[in-house]
Design a protein that fits this description.
heterodimer, A: alpha/beta, Rossmann fold, eight-stranded mixed beta sheet, three-stranded antiparallel beta sheet, 12 helices, 13 strands, globular, B: alpha/beta, FAD/NAD(P)-binding domain, five-stranded parallel beta sheet, 19% strand, binds flavin-adenine dinucleotide, binds thiamine diphosphate, binds iron/sulfur cluster, binds magnesium ion
């Protein structure tokens, strides 16, 4: 009669290059509702970090408030974390990132946290191209406060109490492209085959990476008539392309016919391989990406996969010309360069 | 793969590794839970129904269940299943009243049972409640067979054996002890409706042709004969220097008994390498603990006689060489032969069947290994009235196998006496019920204890070596028994999957601590096994495969290292997983 995760693991559990098993990337047992899509996304994050051989102590998990924002407790228990105020994760992430650029910033937010109370923060963190992965666990409702419609609920979607949503839903991906996001992807919690490589690519990308993941709320928004239920999402998925993530220095092995495939190299040298490209879509072209999103919307399709990618960008540190060294590693001689330097600065101001 | 047919009781039975490995299929996790609940009497009765001698087996069983135990696959050591059985026997209350009784009114049919070992006694127990008149004949003065004549009292106290033998003899068995059956024909002539032969494998192998065997005869003893003579108090001492030949359990009992009868310098000398000795690891350990060295790779060459008396033995030193097929040959190392002094030598190099008392006229066919031609699980010989079981049927094994065969022979005899076909065996009794009690609440302890195996305490060596009858193992106390019982994973609480309820949210796959569950596309078993979250390399463990789900995938669960923790069922939003307790009972003749 317990609800604790046993300490035992599979004796043949594979190890990654650092010698860690997936277990090392897990967190404590989730307290979310059984079957919540958010838990699947947590599992995908675990998988992506394991596969990428990420050192857990080099990750900072940043979140706001909501069921989604609780999930950092359920993955990467050996990483840093900051559970901030509702909708304010982007400011805290910005501060942390400016102070220590050596960490991988994983922002986890919800549709309420990002598209309602945190909208102001969301748009500005994109505008500034903060180098982080920003995951929205999007269930079209405020799960934690019992399922009120959120700003990403689609027009006409019916909630659990039978109300039909009258307001236009905010398209986070479209908005992010508009604001200059340099990596924009959309996926579904129930499709790890797609979600894991997208997360790996987002983590390898330098600059702001949005991954908007449709994540059914089993308790408050999984009813018939909801456009964010397991059934509805599964029936309306439409992928831009299938995605393979090929880490740096590994060989690309799958062969596809020409014209159907596109390989994009990311900053760290790894490759994003896109196969069976949707017609007329070029992930490196903003206009075609926005068109693809609008087209899908018109046809009541949910476009998933990579939507837009700009590998040639300047992230916030580059834009601001900040120091390469994390602030806590700056030594006294750098911080206090001496009288001579002070005098030359003063001379410049005269 | 085809969806798994979980309606076949053998599927879930196999998941309960210990029970499946037990020749009598004792419902192990059920009695372990009862021990944890301090219900020792009930735990004893569960055992008694299956294995007839819980007190004996809790001390001496060969424990095929333990190497099979799932716990051994997720950590170092299996659950101490055998020693928990002893706990049930040690702390039980009144049990006799709970046992079936033989009816006053007999059914009019008569059965002869030859031999009084575990197989024969099991047949008696299973048939007596059905009203058969049973005549048992045994050469020994008391019942129990080799459990009495061979297993030394320091491993199995006589009171424990007497108690369990008497539960059966008290069912109105007409027992004729001190009666050697010298002719099966005479028994057949007495018009019994059926005859059961459970006479064991009574002949110990000898080294007849080794030089010096004749001259040294007074101090060279056949292991099993010598042990019997100690057990029946004919032999009370042995020389100071003793060599025991052989590497099986009989050798271990011989050397340890020698230490108690005056042997000071007792050695076990074995032909094979130490790692290939037949004795159970725990028996070897106990012998070493009693300061008995084991010399391996020594082939006996000669009994050395001085002044007309045994002085010792000469051995050739060998090493094991293996060919491509892994077949072993022992080749000389070329070193000089070695001599070891000995006042007495015990030859414990194996046992054989021997039926000098079965005449050709009885119509029983024997095969080239000297055992009767029989089919499992029928155990009927070429004379349709004569059934065999235990060591007499398929060669020397152990007590639990003798019991399991006894159950089957009893069923055959009962069917035969009713004129029914022997192939129509009763189906096992099964039951499958949900253990769900409420939120996070199950009727079994689903918390997986991380404790490592508890060691059974032993009496002080200084005392046990002085007294042949002083039991060495002390058994678990109640507190330790509880802790050891908590190590059991409750493998009989099955993960039951209902495909129609699954919405493929992956929650169960994500939570499973041992990554047993994968949702993937179906395929051939050998290929599917490689595609699971963790490839399923243990081919002796089954895959549970669901019918095709809505997305076209299937749920595949590798049973190998499932902890039966119930987290999959906890995390499933639709109760597509449920933890259901499976009870499996081999039906006995009287049930
Ligand atoms: C030294 C030793 C130690 C062992 N230790 C263990 C152990 O720790 N655990 C374990 O599980 N197994 C052990 N075994 C094996 C186990 O004792 C036997 O496998 C088991 O007792 C076989 O049971 P059974 O019913 O077939 O016959 P047995 O136990 O051999 O009984 C046969 C009986 O038939 C009687 N008999 C034979 N011929 C006749 C006849 N013609 N007329 C009348 N009576 C006859 C014999 O006197 C005997 O009483 C040990 C064996 C030996 C030799
Ligand atoms: C400042 C503030 N305002 C309101 C709340 C109440 N509140 C808690 S969670 C939540 C909505 C969360 O929705 P979302 O981000 O979509 O997360 P979900 O639970 O759906 O994953 C709200 C409004 C709060 N905690 N703090
Ligand atoms: S863990 Fe318990 S139920 Fe499972 S095999 Fe071992 S003893 Fe049997
Ligand atoms: S009971 Fe379920 S969650 Fe627990 S180990 Fe077995 S399959 Fe995994
Ligand atoms: S948790 Fe339940 S509904 Fe979800 S995938 Fe597993 S069995 Fe299916
Ligand atoms: Mg939400």
């Amino acid at each position: 009669m317990t609800y604790l995760k046993p300490k035992f693991h599979h004796p043949d559990l594979p190890k990654n290059k650092l010698g860690y098993t997936r277990k090392y990337y897990e967190g404590s047992l989730s307290t979310l509702c059984a079957g919540c899509g958010h838990d699947s996304i947590s599992a995908a994050i675990v998988e992506a970090c394991f596969e990428l051989n990420i050192e857990p102590h080099k990750v900072a998990k940043m979140s706001g408030i909501g069921c989604s924002s609780k999930t950092p407790a359920y993955f990467l228990s050996n990483s840093h974390g900051f559970n901030s105020v509702h909708g304010r994760m982007p400011s805290v992430a910005t501060g942390a990132n400016l102070a220590n650029r050596d960490l991988l910033y994983l922002g986890v937010s919800g549709d309420g946290d990002s598209a309602s109370i945190g909208m102001g923060q969301f748009v500005h963190v994109i505008r500034r191209n903060l180098n982080m992965v920003y995951i929205v666990m999007n269930n079209g409702c405020y799960g934690l406060t019992k399922g009120q419609d959120s700003a990403t609920a689609d027009v006409g979607s019916k909630n659990k109490s039978g109300n039909i949503n009258q307001f236009e839903g905010i398209d986070l991906c479209g908005l992010a492209i508009e604001l200059g996001a340099t990596f924009v992807a959309q996926s579904f919690s129930g499709d790890k085959a797609q979600l894991v490589p997208l997360l790996q690519a987002a983590m390898s990308h330098e600059g702001f990476a949005l991954v908007n993941v449709l994540s059914p709320c089993v308790t408050f928004n999984n009813n018939t008539g909801s456009t964010k239920s397991y059934d509805y999402v599964r029936e309306h998925l439409e992928a831009t392309a299938s995605v393979d993530f090929v880490p740096y220095a590994e060989e690309i092995t799958t062969q596809y016919e020409e014209g159907e495939t596109k390989s994009i190299q990311l900053h760290d040298g790894s490759w994003l391989e896109l196969h069976k490209l949707a017609q007329g879509w070029n992930p490196e072209d903003k206009i075609s990406a926005i068109n693809a999103l609008q087209n899908a919307r018109k046809h009541h399709e949910i476009l998933t996969g990579l939507i837009y990618l700009d590998t040639d960008n300047k992230e916030l540190h580059d834009l601001m010309n900040t120091t390469d060294v994390p602030l806590n590693k700056l030594t006294q001689d750098v911080l206090c360069p001496g009288l001579e330097v002070l005098e030359s600065i003063n001379a410049d101001l005269r | 793969m085809e969806p798994t047919n979980v309606n076949d009781p053998e599927y879930y039975h196999k998941v309960v590794d210990c029970q499946h490995a037990c020749p009598a299929h004792t419902p192990v996790p059920e009695y372990i839970r009862l021990i944890a609940a301090e219900k020792y009497t009930e735990a004893y009765m569960i055992n008694w129904e299956s294995n007839v001698f819980p007190g004996v087996l809790g001390r001496t069983c060969d424990r095929p269940c333990e190497p099979a135990c799932r716990r051994g696959r997720v950590e170092e050591e299996p659950v101490a299943i055998c020693r928990l059985k002893r706990v049930a026997a040690d702390f039980k209350g009144e049990v006799k009243a709970l046992m079936p009784k033989a009816p006053q009114q007999k059914n009019g049919q008569k059965i002869a049972v030859i031999g009084g070992g575990p197989a024969a006694l099991t047949v008696c127990r299973d048939l007596a409640p059905l009203g058969y008149e049973i005549h048992l004949y045994d050469e020994q003065s008391k019942g129990g067979g080799m459990m009495r004549s061979q297993i030394p009292s320091f491993r199995l106290p006589a009171e424990v054996l007497d108690e369990e033998v008497n539960y059966i003899l008290d069912m109105g068995i007409d027992a004729h002890f001190n009666t050697y059956v010298s002719s099966l024909q005479q028994i057949l002539d007495k018009s019994y409706d059926a005859v059961f032969v459970g006479t064991g494998a009574p002949r110990g192998k000898d080294l007849k042709d080794l030089p010096g065997r004749q001259e040294g005869a007074a101090n060279i003893h056949i292991g099993i004969e010598w042990l019997a003579s100690v057990a029946f108090e004919h032999t009370h001492k042995i020389g100071k220097k003793v060599i025991v030949l052989g590497g099986g359990n009989t050798a271990m009992d011989c050397c340890r008994t020698s230490r108690r009868l005056g042997g000071e310098d007792v050695k076990v000398i074995v032909r094979s390498p130490f790692s290939e000795m037949k004795a159970s690891p725990w028996e070897i350990e106990d012998a070493l603990h009693e300061d008995i060295p084991i010399l391996d790779n020594h082939v006996p060459k000669q009994f050395v006689i001085k002044d007309g008396k045994l002085a010792g033995m000469l051995f050739e030193k060998v090493k094991a060489v293996y060919d491509d097929q892994g077949k072993r040959t022992l080749v000389s190392t070329g070193e000089a032969d070695v001599f070891y002094e000995a006042d007495d030598v015990l030859v414990a190099i194996g046992q054989e069947n021997s039926f000098p008392w079965i005449e050709a006229s009885c119509g029983i066919n024997f095969n080239k290994w000297g055992v009767p031609e029989l089919k499992e699980p029928i155990f009927q010989s070429s004379n349709e009235k004569v059934f065999f079981g235990g060591d007499a049927s398929l060669g020397p094994k152990n007590v639990i196998t003798a019991v399991a065969q006894g159950h089957q022979a009893a069923i055959s005899i009962h069917l035969f006496c009713q004129g029914k076909p022997l192939t129509e065996r009763p189906a096992p009794g099964t039951n499958l019920v949900s253990t769900k009690m409420g939120i996070h609440e199950w009727s079994y302890e689903n918390d997986v204890a991380t404790d490592i195996r508890y060691i059974v305490p032993q009496a002080d060596k200084a005392l046990t070596l002085k007294d042949r009858k002083k039991e060495v193992e002390l058994g678990f106390d109640v507190k330790t028994a509880f802790k050891e019982a908590q190590r059991c994973l409750n493998c009989d609480v099955q993960t039951v999957f209902t495909a129609s309820k699954c919405i493929e949210c992956d929650a169960c796959m994500d939570i499973c601590p041992t990554n047993c569950i994968t949702f993937t596309h179906n395929g051939e078993e050998s290929e599917l096994r490689t595609r699971l979250f963790v490839p399923a390399k243990n081919l002796s463990q089954d895959l549970l495969v669901s019918p095709t789900l809505a997305t076209g995938k299937v749920m595949v669960k590798d049973e190998d290292v499932c902890l039966h923790c119930g987290l999959c069922a906890e995390r499933c939003p639709t109760a597509a997983w449920d933890m259901q307790q499976f009870f499996y009972n081999v039906t006995k003749a009287y049930q």
